[in-house]
Amino acid sequence: MESSENLWIAVAVALALGVVVGVVLTQIARRVSGGQISGSTQAQLENLQLRFEEYQQEVSSHFKTTANLVSRLNRSYQDIQQHLTQGAMDLSPDEMTRQQLLAVLEQDNRPSSGEPAFDSLEPPRDYAPKNEDTPGTLSEGYGVKRH
Predict the structure, then answer these.
(1) DSSP 143
(2) What is the pLDDT of residues 31-89, one digit of tens each?
(3) How far is 68 from 75, CA to CA, in rounded Å?
């Protein structure tokens, strides 16, 4: 019986020793592979950060170019307007024609008030308007024919 007790003790010690060795090896493996993963993750993070900064610069450059082009377009429009006004002044045969041309040019040159052309704009309804004397679709008598 003593030999079976020794056998059980040896098995328990071997099991405990195996668990300890497994835990130690797992910790070592995590540290080694963890360093590689975090290094790879750090490289990916830096790459993404660099790409994001480049994208921000591209967006900023795009809007700066757009603003310059719109400004140039406005200046060109003003130059055309001045050219047409000067042409109307110089080339119109009489005073009445000149005044009509200048009035049209000034009307086109005035900034719009920003109000919509239609005063009664409203979103579409999801129901049909009903008359006062007809029952609504939610009334109990709607659609019921009485003889």
Answers:
(1) T
(2) 777 655 566 788 889 999 999 999 999 999 999 999 999 999 999 999 998 898 888 77
(3) 11
